[in-house]
Every structure is written in structure tokens, then in C-alpha cells.
Write a structure and sequence with these properties.
elongated; 247 residues; 23% helix
Length: 247
Amino acid sequence: MIKINKFKFVPVVLSFVLLLASFPSALFAQEDILKDPRLDSIAEKYGVEFVPIESIQHNIQSNDNNIQQDTTQTSELEPLKFKDVVEFEQFLAQLRADLDKRDVAEFSIDPSNPTASSDPSLITTMDSEDTYIISWSAPFTAWGLAGAFATKNITVNYSYKYVNNWPQYTGVSSIKSHLGGLNLIGWEQTGGSKTYSQKCSPKDTANFKVVGYFLLGAEINGFPIGAKMNDTWEGSLTLKPPARDCF
């Protein structure tokens, strides 16, 4: 019959019980933090959706992405680290303030006009097609992003023609967006729209609106969490008339 020294056995059993007690908390840490009631208030206040970090990793865009192509490359998610939920909320509040400083990026181009006539009484009906990238700086001041250089980019494929030597849009076939120059967060577009307006002649200006959300990964006291923050980008592109005194 084997005898067990009860004095040595008790500490071993106690250590094993403590190990089992700590294991579930580590295993379900991310699920638990997503259930934190404080996140509901933060989500409503700043327009954020909290998700498992794995669900957004494959959507994080690489800085090496060629925005002229309809591709999205993947990159390793680099999480921002916070000591607690309070510090995380402070970061989201500042990020929301940065995004709410919204303005319209206005650009103009002088399109090529191989078919335009010097006689303004003639109407050119042939359509031309082109692509343009509206790109402007997007400064961030939120903790972890302060001083980082980033650009918002809207790539548009459009067609136009000349009427009485005045350029005007005939259509827009594609509106796509991309965040450049920043590897801490990503951007995913969910929709894009356009309207036309007049600066010098009818339909010489296209106004673009892109909606989507920023993607970011974070660690709160070591527990991973993903977040999506809604935003809207706006830009306009005006077709400049050739040798006309309008601008």
C-alpha cells in the first residue's frame, strides 16, 4: 500500500486548484471585456462598434497598398495599448474630435480636350474617360497617433465631354477610398455617392461622399479588443475650362 504524505500533497492540490481557477479568466478574457457595460456607453457616445480583434485583422490595409488598383492587402495588426478602459475612452474621445473636424477637399483639373473645337457654336458629343485621385492630409492628435502622417484618398473613374468648349461630366463609374501613410489603423469603405454642381458651366463639378469606418486594434490591460469608428469623407473635382476666365 502506497502512503502519501498529506503535508506535501495539500500544497500540490492547492496549486492545481488555483491554476484551474485562473485558466478560464485568461481563456475568456476577450469575451469578458466585450461584455463590459462601460463599452456600451462609449460606443453610443463616440460612434464606435466593438468587435473581436480577429474579425478586423484581415481588413487592415497595408501602407504599401496601391490605391489605383482595386485590391486590399493585409498586414499585421499593431494594437494600441491602454492601461484601463478610462484611458481607452480618452483616446477614442480625442480620435472622434479629430474626425469631426471635417472639411471638403476641393480639387480642379484641366482635362485633355483633343476633340474640342475653337468654334464655340459646335458641340462635341464624344465622351472621354479618366481617373483622378483626390488626396489630402488627415492629421491625428489622439494618443498613439499624434504626429503621424496620414492621407485620405478618394479615387474616381469618370467620363466627360465638351459642350461649346466647356467640359462637363457625363458619368462616374467608380468611387473608392483608401487611408495612406498610417499603419496603426485601417479604413474600410461601406458606400460612396456623387452629385453634380456648377462652378463655371453645367455639370462641371462632381461632389463625392464616401462613408465607412476606421479599424483599430487595442489592448486594455493586456486584453485584446477591436473597434470600428464611423466617418465620412467628402471631396469635389472641378473640370477647368480651357483658356476661359472663370476660376
